[in-house]
Amino acid sequence: MTEQKRSPIQAFRRLLVNPVSLGYLALVAAVWAWVLVMTFLVPHPDASLAGVWGFLVTAPTSLLFLGMSSPLVWVGVAVAAVFQALLLGAAYRGITGLVRRAGTSAA
C-alpha cells in the first residue's frame, strides 16, 4: 500500500473538518456567546463569573495561558480550542480508521 504525502495544510484540514472537531468548536463558540450575553446584557452580580465557563470548556490547555497578560489570555483560549479540536479530530480519525480496518478484515 502506498502512503500519500499530505501537506501540513491538508493534514490540518483533515483533522479539523470532521463531526467531532466541528461539534467541539461549535460548543466552544456557543459557550463564549453565552458568556458574552451574560457579561454584557444581563445585569446581576454573578455575571462576572460567567467567563469561567469559557476557560473550563477549553481546559486544560487554556489554563496554561492564564499567567499571560490580558490580551494574550484571549488568544490562548482560541489557540487552546483549536488545539483540542485537532486532538479530538486525530482521535476520531484513529478510531474510525480502526473500525474501518476491522470491518474489511472480517469480511
TrEMBL record:
What is an example of a Pfam family matching this protein? DUF7942
Q: Does the keyword Transmembrane helix apply?
A: yes
The reply to whether Oxidoreductase figures as a keyword in the UniProt entry is no
Transmembrane regions listed in the UniProt entry: 22-42, 49-66, 72-92
InterPro entries associated with the record: DUF7942
Q: Which UniProt keywords apply?
A: Membrane, Transmembrane, Transmembrane helix
What's this protein's name? Integral membrane protein
